[in-house]
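Ticket opened by: R.M.
Priority: normal
Category: complex prediction / small molecule

The reporter submitted a protein together with glutathione and asked that the result be attached to this ticket for the collaborator who will pick it up next week. Submitted input follows.
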Amino acid sequence: MKLLMSPASPFVRKVRVVLRELDLLDQVEEVTVTTTPLASDPSVVAANPTGKIPALVRDSGPAIYDSRVITRFLNDHGDGSLYPQARIWEVLTLEATADAIMEAAVLMTYEARLRPEAQQSSDWVEAQWGKASRTIAAVNARWMSHLHGPLDIGHIGIACALSYVDLRHHARGWRNGNDALAAWHADFMTRDSMAATAA
Ligand SMILES: N[C@@H](CCC(=O)N[C@@H](CS)C(=O)NCC(=O)O)C(=O)O
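Result attached by the on-call engineer:
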């Protein structure tokens, strides 16, 4: 199988961490592409009509996409325990929460990098940061007990989301007021899977 990817993408990183946590690297080739909303890579479009990464080109069956679909597929494929049935709704909600932080943070990046300066809206960027920062605060307030439990996709998603905020929006200082989450993140970053996938 081939994973169409770019190392800086937090959605991609989630998949790359899952590949390492489940020891599936020998079954998936990671293929680096360059794709943006303004210039889609044709190989990505062939796999995913939206032009977004990650996309997983499988040896049999159609390509699959959206990071949440790929991570769940890999978990089934590798007989993993990242989606435990006993607390599935909690896990899926935390995964969605992580994706929401990523979405807001990626949109902020695109606004600054891809839109001509005269068309950029600081109100819109601040609104996206409002979404990301209040979601990070909610994770710090309500999810720490879950994050200190057994590894699932929610942990991986939150770690990748926060690391992306560090990568592109470090000056926002997400750690301020989120001490418990900051300590958890520092510890999670010591995992081999996170070290191996740093952009
Ligand atoms: N919901 C998607 C979001 C993926 C996404 O937005 N990927 C970005 C890179 S971080 C992308 O491919 N952007 C190119 C585009 O929007 O055309 C997922 O979870 O896979």
